[in-house]
Structures are given as structure tokens and as C-alpha cells.
Amino acid sequence: MLTLHRIRMFRRTCREVTRLVLEGEERRLGWVDRTAIRLHLMICSACPRFLRQVQFMRHAMGRWRNYRDAE
Amino acid sequence: MMIDFAAQVEGLRPQLLRFARSQLRNDAWAEDAVSDTLLAALERPQSFAGNSQLKTWLVGILKHKVVDQLRRHSREATVLTTDDGEDLDESLFAPDGHWREAPQDWGDPEAACGRREFFEVLEACMEHLPPTQGRVFMMREWLELETDEICKELTITATNLWVLLHRARLRLRECLQSSWFNARPA
């Protein structure tokens, strides 16, 4: 019972994970959210690609700042 | 020498104005921010060390002047348009919370960042964000402000800010998908 309860506590839909991943760009998430994301990414094929797109955008924004402010 | 410096500073005005506009989304505020920047530069030319580029130095001043404008106009700057209030989530996810269409593999960002056209598309996508979303997104990504600083300058709550940034990032993602990745298959 306890195990089942624990799994529920960390269960998130793709939509919820998307929100959390984006919120993670603005602040450090708590451990429950971070764990929930990690567990979801292990069983989902779509969300890992969304996460990589977010990382892509973060990287691109950093390069864009240099491009714009200096070149 | 001084006249030369003034001419060079003045020569960068169009570029500064474009930057200020993209952040402020208001022509009058942008004009004010740029005028304040040029004035500050011409008043203290000695603070330009000369070892950095003139443009980089001016952009540094401009960023402060832009924040001044945002602070001054914070009330108007946070008025939401219909577009600002619209959530992309509904179109991205089925009622059960699953993706309607799985995200694509975008590959290595460095491959895109090596190309000037990519930055042009990226800038166009940012300029297409609805005004309030665009402002907070640029405050975060161009002015590089922390979220609590943005909340303070615009007098909005952290939750409001996260919602706006969430919407802005999802829109930017959609725009990059359609204007860059779909337009140029890898």
C-alpha cells in the first residue's frame, strides 16, 4: 500500500511534466518535482525530446546574446 | 577626437533603437531609453575604456536604461492582450494529458547556432511573441534578470511571471518548429 501511495505521489502526465520542465528554467524545483520528472522521463518517449528542445533553446539563447550584443 | 566619438555613438542609434523596441514593445519608451543611453555615453566618454567594443559598451548602458523605462511604465507594461492570456497547452495536449503530437528531435544546437539565418529566425520568433510575454521573456533572456527582480520591477507575482514565461517558451518552441525546423529539413 505504501509503495502504491509513493508511486502515485510521483506520477505526472506529459502536460504536467512539460510545465515542470519549463518552470525549472526559472527556479530550482523541489526534490518531489525533480524525482517525478526523472521517473516520467524513464517511461515516456515524447517528454525526453521536449526536455532536449528546452535545452536546445537555452543553449541557443546564450549564443544569441553574444551574437546580438557584440557582433 | 570628441566629434569623432560622438559620431560613432550616434551611428549606433538605429541598432540600439531596434534592441530597445524588441524589449519594450513601445516606440516612445524605446526612443526615451535610447536617448538616455546616448546622453549618458556622451556625458562620460572617459568611462569608455576602449578595450571593449563601443557597441558592447553602449548595449550595457542601454540595458540599464531599458529597465528604468520598464520600471516607470510597469503598470502599462503588464496589461495582457487576448494573445497573452491564451494557453497553448490546450492545443498541445489531449484531455488525458498526453502529447497530441510528440515533440521532434531538434538535434545539436551548435549546428543551428553556426548560421546567421538561425538567429534571424529566432529574433523574428521573439518579436512575434505577444507584448507582455515578449517583455518578460526578453527581461529574462536578454537583460538576464532573475525572476524575483522581474517581479519587483513589474510588480507582478511569481506565479504570474511563471505563467507568462511558460506561454512564451511554448510559443517560441512552436515558432522554431514551424519557421526553422519544418522550413529546412535536416
- Measured by DSSP, the beta-strand proportion of chain B falls in under 5%
- Determine Rg of chain A (CA atoms, Å): 16 Å
The number of E-state strands of chain B comes to 0
DSSP summary: helix tally of chain A? 4
Fraction of residues in helix of chain A: over 70%
Number of distinct helices of chain B = 12
Q: Spell the H/E element sequence of chain A.
A: HHHH
* Shape call of chain A: elongated
Shape label of chain B? globular
What is the arithmetic mean of pLDDT of chain B?
Answer: 92
The low-pLDDT segments of chain A are none
Rg estimate of chain B, integer Å = 19 Å
Structural class of chain B: mainly alpha
In percent terms, what proportion of residues of chain A is strand? under 5%
Explain the overall architecture.
- The complex is a heterodimer of chains A (71) and B (186).
- By secondary structure, chain A is an all-alpha fold.
- Chain A starts with a helix and ends with a helix.
- Chain A contains 4 helices and no strands.
- Chain B has helices at residues 2-11, 13-24, 27-43, 54-72, 74-77, 82-85, 89-92, 109-113, 116-127, 131-141, 147-154, 158-181.
- In chain B, helix 2 packs parallel to helix 4.
- Chain B is globular.
- The model of chain B has no long low-confidence stretch (mean pLDDT 92).
- At the A-B interface, helix 2 and helix 4 of A face helix 4, helix 8, helix 9 and helix 12 of B.
